[in-house]
Amino acid sequence: QFLKQLGIHPDWQFVDVYGMEPELLSMVPRPVCAVLLLFPVTEKYETFRTEEEERIKAKGQDVKSSVYFMKQTINNACGTIGLIHAIANNRDKMNFETNSSLKKFLEDSLSMTPEERAKYLETYEAIRVTHESSAHEGQTETPSIDEKVDLHFIALVNVGGHLYELDGRKPFPINHGETSDDSFLEDAIEVCKKFMERDPEELRFNAIALSAA
């Protein structure tokens, strides 16, 4: 529904990943071009996030210039940012309607910095309105803009044979190593499992895949 509102043809769809075991992963339609993970932001996670950031800043990492990454400056918009990350890094595979608001946003923001993209989204009515209406359609109460939400979305994508974690709260994309179109879903799920292993007593994890319809 959300993709349709943004002017994307329905040849790709978001599907639930019901579990991380091979037989449950085999139920997900292929190919998969992105995975969105919803997870709780806990103290353990925040500690890990700080350490990871310091480690990468010290050691450096290889991030292809073709990775589309944006910062998150709007509260509670992590789902929208995750969606933009998923679509933007697979835009060559998507069929957009001519008047698609998301297509225009991506074309306008391609040459911007991650910070400029965030600022642009703040002013970009068409996507924000869609985000708000789709949040209202959801089963849960929409959190108010200033309410503290402790669940967060990230996107996992394959760009040029590398698996990237894109999280607008982080200063840069995280390169999780090599992947391929065939192994991408399994590789992305391995990254999701690490999130779960860091917080073994937490149950609030949910993965959805952007799959061929």
From TrEMBL:
It holds the Pfam family Peptidase_C12. Its main location: cytoplasm. Residues 1-212 form the UCH catalytic domain. The record marks 72 as: Transition state stabilizer. GO terms for biological process: protein deubiquitination; ubiquitin-dependent protein catabolic process. Coiled coil: none annotated. InterPro entries: Papain-like_cys_pep_sf, Peptidase_C12_UCH, Peptidase_C12_UCH_sf, UCH_AS. Its EC number is 3.4.19.12. It catalyses: Thiol-dependent hydrolysis of ester, thioester, amide, peptide and isopeptide bonds formed by the C-terminal Gly of ubiquitin (a 76-residue protein attached to proteins as an intracellular targeting signal). It is found in: Cytoplasm. The record marks 167 as: Important for enzyme activity. GO terms for molecular function: cysteine-type deubiquitinase activity. One of its GO terms (cellular component) is cytoplasm. Gene3D superfamilies: Peptidase C12, ubiquitin carboxyl-terminal hydrolase. The active site is at residues 78, 152. Keywords: Cytoplasm, Hydrolase, Phosphoprotein, Protease, Thiol protease, Ubl conjugation pathway. It comes from the Eukaryota. Belongs to the peptidase C12 family. Preferentially binds diubiquitin; the interaction does not hydrolyze diubiquitin but, in vitro, inhibits the hydrolyzing activity on other substrates. This is Ubiquitin carboxyl-terminal hydrolase.
